[in-house]
């Protein structure tokens, strides 16, 4: 695997005292990369636990999504039609001018748990991109879905496994979805200080479609170089663990950084 300049983030399933500061280690798994090591920080699961979306999500653009096999060969397609939903989960955002291609992959455990895994993971990405559409004119488009055989003893290993298997694919983002019992987190992603030399990678755990989408928008933000706000600071932002599952805004500094770095994925 090519070395990357990155910063790991974890959304851990273990609970923390609200407002407590600090870093929680997750198995002592460390890497050395080009410019900085890997830092693992913990976030409690949302209070409501596992939660699915209700109703249809807002799909900004009709897309014919490729279904790939494990070797990357196209086996079929699924058409997801543009849908403007007046329900509680839609912001009525217009489709973003900047289209970012996504390969969404689900591991064996996730596929066994959800027979509708292809539709499910597309809907999660579509829900996760509402804020990006609304605030940054960015539309994540799932151009392909594929199976994945995840392996690793913890979340960091499983993210590395994803990157090893899908590096070099012709997509801007590779979003992994896992139900692997060894994945002890809610989500994990590479945080890039500079434009990555390939796809941007993240993995989210199966928290239900609604909470997975909330975790994914947090992780996608790291792919744009965004860091965390400190717990206990009162900053209402999805990058503050105190508010990650309860607000749908970034703070001003993070908005500026996403706006600056979105050029990486043109």
UniProtKB/TrEMBL annotation:
Keywords: Signal
Organism whose genome encodes this protein: Bacillus paralicheniformis
Amino acid composition bias (Basic and acidic residues), ranges on this chain: 27-47
Keyword Signal tagged: yes
Ranges in a coiled coil: none
Residues of the signal peptide: 1-20
Segments of this protein annotated with the region Disordered: 25-47
Name of the protein this chain belongs to: Peptidase M84
Domain of life of the native organism: Bacteria
Keyword Hydrolase: no
């Amino acid at each position: 695997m090519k070395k990357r300049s990155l910063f790991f983030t974890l959304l851990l399933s273990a609970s923390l005292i609200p407002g407590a500061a600090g870093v929680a280690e997750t198995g002592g798994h460390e890497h050395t990369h080009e410019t900085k090591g890997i830092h693992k920080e913990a976030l409690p699961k949302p209070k409501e636990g596992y939660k699915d979306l209700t109703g249809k999500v807002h799909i900004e653009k009709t897309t014919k999504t490729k279904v790939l096999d494990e070797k990357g060969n196209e086996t079929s397609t699924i058409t997801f039609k543009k849908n403007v939903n007046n329900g509680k989960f839609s912001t009525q955002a217009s489709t973003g001018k900047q289209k970012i291609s996504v390969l969404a992959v689900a591991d064996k455990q996730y596929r066994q748990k959800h027979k509708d895994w292809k539709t499910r993971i597309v809907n999660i990405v579509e829900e996760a991109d509402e804020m990006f559409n609304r605030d940054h004119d960015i539309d994540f488009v799932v151009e392909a879905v594929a199976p994945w055989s995840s392996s690793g003893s913890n979340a960091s290993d499983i993210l590395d496994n994803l990157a090893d298997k899908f590096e070099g694919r012709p997509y801007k983002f590779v979003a992994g979805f896992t139900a692997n019992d060894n994945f002890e987190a809610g989500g994990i992603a590479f945080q890039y200080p500079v434009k990555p030399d390939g796809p941007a990678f993240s993995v989210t755990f199966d928290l239900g479609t609604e909470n997975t989408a909330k975790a994914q928008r947090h992780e996608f933000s790291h792919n744009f170089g965004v860091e965390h706000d400190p717990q206990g600071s009162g900053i209402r932002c999805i990058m503050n663990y105190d508010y990650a599952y309860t607000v749908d805004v970034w703070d001003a500094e993070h908005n500026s950084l996403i706006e600056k770095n979105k050029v990486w994925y043109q």
